[in-house]
């Protein structure tokens, strides 16, 4: 009868077969460790995972989003006093405002106050020596070429890329100093074509979006794209900056503001739907791939999602969780790891007959694509064999009873 039991099909190995399988795997060159789970081990695992959340410095860095670049369209306005280089018209003819006339037109204490205010201003001294009329001239809009330069009359080629509009205005003013009488320059960005980032993938609206001096972050970009197509917990974010990719789950951004990175021009954001799931095999009441449906999930919650262990088939002493674990975690647990691989296959074993194991299961956090295996009880095959015999002889018993 025992020989017949061994020939029956099964859903997976028993605890003894699992241990034997580990030795056979070592002989074939595929080594994995079986580690009994306990509270101190779970604490070391959690501490190591928390220590691995630091961001690379290049991602955490910040760059200004108001710098001029190729493709931008600029409006340059030159203010001149006295003999104008760009316009021979008088202040009144050109429609400009004469600051000196404004001050002189005031009477009484108001005029005196205005004169006092203007006398402390450097521009006022220029007005006094030149007749007092400030003439503004708006030059035609100019586009920054691919080399980062613009061309202006009487000046020529001016390199403006990498500067903000105040710096460009100061540069043009210095270049006009020997050509114009008391010049001042104001630069406006009419069309900003260089301070953009791109978002695409699993969002409702893909495309380019502008970056401003507000310093937009990843979540700002997602909001601009009208949100994600699926729950954020199941989204993977890839930030491409200067040819380097940085990938992390979107749920980490909600829990750690350091990952809500300030975006820079030419950054690219890609969102990919990658649902968090774990798989259950063996003597569980529900054998399937099961979604997390929440940011974090413990082993206790995972077992409950699988409807627990099957009473007549499961060996509660041998519940296994299999994953490719980070080598840094395993080194802290005293497990030898490969120097050339980042992860190592490992099996965590938990004894559900030990009441303390339920506290361990509440502390142990699941990872995406973890696999839970509930070993079959050694008595399982006997029950299967008994059920098979009952199926065979039951019709005969029924027929004999009816023949009476």
From TrEMBL:
Alphabetical UniProt keywords: Cell outer membrane, Ion transport, Lipoprotein, Membrane, Palmitate, Polysaccharide transport, Porin, Signal, Sugar transport, Transmembrane, Transmembrane beta strand, Transport
Name of the protein in question: Capsular polysaccharide biosynthesis protein
Gene3D superfamilies hit by this protein: Outer membrane lipoprotein wza domain like, wza like domain
UniProt record similarity statement: Belongs to the BexD/CtrA/VexA family.
GO molecular function: polysaccharide transmembrane transporter activity; porin activity
InterPro entries linked to this entry: Poly_export, Poly_export_N, SLBB_dom
Membrane topology: Multi-pass membrane protein
